[in-house]
Amino acid sequence: MVNVYDQATKASPTSVGTPTRALTIGAHPDDAEFGAGGTLAQWAADGCHITMLVVTDGSKGTWDSKMAQSELIVQRQAEQRLAANALGVIDIVMLDHVDGELQQSPSLVAELCWWIRTLQPEVVLSHDPWKRYMLHPDHRNTGMAAVDAIVAARDHLFFVDQGLDKHRPDAVLLWAADEPDYFQDISERFDQKMEALLCHSTQGPTTMGDATTADAAAFIQRMKEWAVSQGKSGSPTEGFKRLTP
Hints:
Oligomer: single chain
Strand order of the largest sheet: 1-7-8-6-5-2-3-4
Largest sheet: 8 strands, mixed
Number of helices: 6
Order of helices and strands: EEHEHEHEHEEHHE
Distance between the termini: 24 Å
């Protein structure tokens, strides 16, 4: 897979390559697919063991006033499984915190730290909590809790009651970054990313801009234009802020 770097930066980070294990921490079903779906699909194809962790239950994610929240939760879980399968990902963790009410708290940091120490990923991917004008509180709070959990997981004196060995990932990649400096070419996996996103059918009228079956082509075209704009190569690209824990 080709790694693309923005030559305007002073020093582009070296490639993370294909990790053996990776963990995504997304606020809602579909967040990781939007932010890193092409990268995940390529890593999965190359043999990476990926776990997709979803923090909330997605229970606010509909504009359909007739859909019960209990029904929405079940449907969004099913959509997440379909989307992960489309990317080649087997392992999914659903924490089921209430959508829209997530708080960046010590208990959430401890919970995410436990998963990082348990799974021992080489790369953790999540939201950029420092993105200016990020409107959704779940995205901000998930990203900050994920970053705090990475710091806690690497140092043995945090959450000693967990009884787990410390773990320091090699890299953190933050999607939808305010200042991206790491770019991944997803030319070969763009279609797979779109297949995964369209599994989230409840989100068609909302975050996907009426991406119903009839309007899927228009949504895919918008996403392709956006992906091409992320890099400098003229190819569909996913951009991240890379941090070294």
